[in-house]
Each structure stands twice: as structure tokens, then as C-alpha cells.
Amino acid sequence: MGPSQSAAFCLQCGAVLELRHLFGRSRPACTRCDFIAFEATPTAAGAVVVRGREVLLIQRRIDPGRGRWGFPAGFQDYGETPEDSARREVREETGLEVRIERLLAVELSRDNPRKLVNLVIYLAREVAGELRAADDALQARFFPLEALPEELAFDNNRRLLQQLRDEFPSGDIS
Ligand SMILES: [Zn+2]
């Protein structure tokens, strides 16, 4: 099932939690009130920003994958749509405003060793802004599909880039 985060105390009343078999599996439940700690899988969203036959990658400043290259992506804030999150992450990490063109992938990602994540990746195109690495990015650069950096951060990035190469053996990516 993957790594799990378990709280020790009740978020409602502060009493100790204990594991109980509830709704089909073992879950932390309060020993005093009716609180059950349902564990949700967080969502992260990001974008493959394309320019002709090039894709935008950032060099990650933080773990997982520190120093390696990957798509701008990050956790969805409460109240955001996945598209909002993807646009915001691209803006924060690269300075570019983008338009979402289409959905590329939705998957349960195991690339972060600390937690499972629902990952939503879009294909996007720049509409404004100036390329400049910031926030969690050390560098932000467009790379030709045929000349990607060796040090990619995640399996899903590698897979998606291969998928784009297969889908668009020549010409612009769209
Ligand atoms: Zn409680």
C-alpha cells in the first residue's frame, strides 16, 4: 500500500487513537469520541510546458529528487482546481504564465518515498511572463526532446517524456 502517515492523537478531542477495523480496513480511531482518521491521498499537479519541440524542466532545489530535473509540479492547495495548481506551480517555479492545453496523465505516484500522491500532469503552453527559476527551482530551462538532461528526478517524468517522443517522433509537440 505504501507509506502511511498516522497520527497518535485525536484531532477533535486530543485523546489517544487506537487502530480499529472500520469500513473495510484498519484505521486509527479515537478512544474517547467518534473521530476516525481517514487517510486521504493528496493530489499534486504539474505541467509539461512545450515550446515547439522543447519541454520546460526545472532543477529541483528540494527533496525528493534534489538537484535533478523534472516538470514543475506541487501539491494542490485547498480550494484550487488541479488546473489552478498546475498553473500556479509553473508560475512560482519558472515565472511563466501558461495555458492548459490538455490532460496528459493521472496516476498514483510512488516517486516520493515519504508518501503516495495522486499526480495530475497537463500539457501547457506559455502565454506570458519571463523565464526565471524561483521558489523550489534552482534552474528552469527548455530542453529539446532529443537532448534531455541525464538526471531526471522521477520515473513518471521519464515515462511521460518517452510517451511524448513516441507520440511526436518529429515536429512540434501539441
Ligand atoms: Zn476524540
Q: How would you characterize the overall build of this protein?
A:
This protein has 174 residues and is mainly beta. The protein folds into 2 domains: 1-39, Ubiquitin Ligase Nedd4, Chain: W (Single Sheet), CATH 2.20.70; 43-167, Nucleoside Triphosphate Pyrophosphohydrolase (Alpha-Beta Complex). The protein has 2 helices and 9 strands. It has helices at residues 82-94, 155-167; strands at 17-22, 25-30, 43-51, 54-60, 69-70, 73-75, 96-109, 117-129, 137-144. The strands form 2 sheets. Strands 3, 4, 5, 6, 7, 8 and 9 form a 7-stranded mixed β-sheet that branches. A hairpin with a 2-residue loop joins strand 3 (43-51) and strand 4. The longest helix has 13 residues, at 82-94. The chain is elongated. The two termini are 35 Å apart. The mean pLDDT is 93. Bound molecules: zinc ion.
Quick rundown:
It is built from 2 helices and 9 strands; from the N terminus they run ββββββαβββα. By secondary structure, it is mainly β.
Give the overall average pLDDT.
93
CATH topology (fold) name of the largest domain:
Nucleoside Triphosphate Pyrophosphohydrolase
Q: What is the approximate shape?
A: elongated
Write the H/E string, N to C. EEEEEEHEEEH
Tell me the domain tally: 2
Fourth-tier CATH superfamily name of the largest domain: Nucleoside Triphosphate Pyrophosphohydrolase
Q: Tell me the radius of gyration.
A: 19 Å
The tally of helices reads 2
**Binned strand content:** 35-45%
* Beta strands, count: 9
Helical content stands at: 10-25%
Distinct ligand kinds: zinc ion
CATH architecture of the largest domain: Alpha-Beta Complex
Largest sheet: 7 strands, mixed
The low-confidence runs, each spanning 5 or more residues with pLDDT under 50, are: none
Oligomer: single chain
Question: CA-to-CA gap between the ends?
Answer: 35 Å
User: Strand pairing plus helix content: what structural class?
Assistant: mainly beta
Determine and state the CATH class of the largest domain: Alpha Beta
